[in-house]
TrEMBL record:
<protein>
    <submittedName>
        <fullName>Glycosyl transferases group 1</fullName>
    </submittedName>
</protein>
<dbReference type="Pfam" id="PF20706">
    <property type="entry name" value="GT4-conflict"/>
</dbReference>
<keyword id="KW-0808">Transferase</keyword>
<dbReference type="GO" id="GO:0016740">
    <property type="term" value="F:transferase activity"/>
</dbReference>
Amino acid sequence: MSPSVTPLSPLLVRLGRCARAARRRVRLALAGERREHFFDLTDTELVTRALGAPPTGTGDAARGEQLYELRDDLRTHFPLGLTPAQRGAFLRWHADHGWDAIPAQPLDLLAYLRELDATPDRGLVATYLVQPEWQAAQPDALTPAGWEPFKQWLTAKYGVQSGWLRRATLPRDLPPARGDGVNLLGLFRYVSGLQQAAVGVAESFAAVGVPLTLRDIPTRNNRDGRRRGAFLSLEPHPVTVLNAGLDMPVPEAYRLAGLHPRPGVKRVAVWFWELEEVPAAWHDRGRDVDEVWAPTRFIADALRVLGKPVYPMLPAVRLPAFTPRPKTHFGLSPDRFTFLFVFDMNSRLPRKNPVALIRAFRRAFRPDEPVELAIKVSPQGEFYPDWWRELRTAARDAGVRLIDKNLSRDELLGLMNAADAYASLHRSEGFGLTMAEAMLLGKPTIATGYSGNLDFMTPENSFLVDYTRTVIEDDTPPYPKGCVWAEPSVAHAAELLRRVFDHPAEARAKAERGRSELRELLSPAAAGARMTARLDVLRGAV
């Protein structure tokens, strides 16, 4: 036996031939000339051998979809990456490089590509819906009259002359290219107050019969698990309503959404803001919209510096059906009266001010009384270590229950429903969503008598805490020092906590009045009527 040959050599040769054969079959499948080749890719072992990727099962198309959805640089580098023309190169790139920000594996991307290959357009529509350049160049592409010119444009631009492109046909279930309703652009899948705001606008327009399309601004974090297919509309209607944070410029919202702003569309921003003043760096935010709908009068007064018409537009707040849960489900005592506060640390601890609420609670009650304070906060991450330390220390010293884990929307409403009363000693709120939700649940609600919550909270339907206006001493981005917010009175808050506990009949009466008033004031029908009045003016001006 030659010294250069070992007993393993024949096996290695055979394995090498298998790998080459596997790669050839994968190339044939990805090239897309004969669709039946793609069924080869259901063989997990085949694909992992061909790509050299670790096996992860059959693949999750939803995870694979996120790559193209979240990375506009990939959409630029692989403009045809969802079609037979470039999907092989796209898959190879992901197998070689991946992206740590999301857990998608090559087989996840493969599952998504296989899903697109089953459509009559072979991935062209999915690509068009997230490629602003294509939308701008071929605005009528997804119409019967525009489909063939669109394919001819692709051939001229990218040199694609394959048979799959000639055979690709337009799906029959596409929405109309033009309408007379409203396009909604917002964070529809980001679990947050901004998601609830976007959903509220959609429900309000739907309640009064306004036709709608929905376009999602995707995020990497706090996603609610839904895929993007129902949130990929273009701008067929003459008016677009944008729901996003004031910190997100309008062009950035469109870029993240993969959407080209269609010329001639009137644009309205629904912006939330939490201080009396807007930072000077944001005074140009109105440049890209025609007018602003401010959710409260407090916000409206702040946003007038943007140089565009500003209209107070109180939103809808509707509680979906949820599963009632006992206090014990959340680690709370069934024998104690429970005060609750809910906040997200990303909304900034100094503004939400839970430590002041803890101090007021300690001042109001002795440790041996049958009463407790629970604070629901987002889970601790790597950010804000000093704030977390401050909160945990204050809660521990006062015997306050911290619920610092993710809850589904259903569970969160179950927690709020299980509590006996709600309290917020915020320094400032643009609107005050959790207070409105607590009142709609019929809970006695105590809150600082300042800022946006005064559009629905009154001395007759809630318990308002005295305050003094004070200057912000330290920068707390996005809230700069030198601006103004409230310093709620801890002493007065303690009196009101005690009052709610000692006088349950009075507390229940206010709570019932609040629930009755808010059911009408913040109903989708009422909010829809308010918005439609302005919408009619805008549509008439288009």
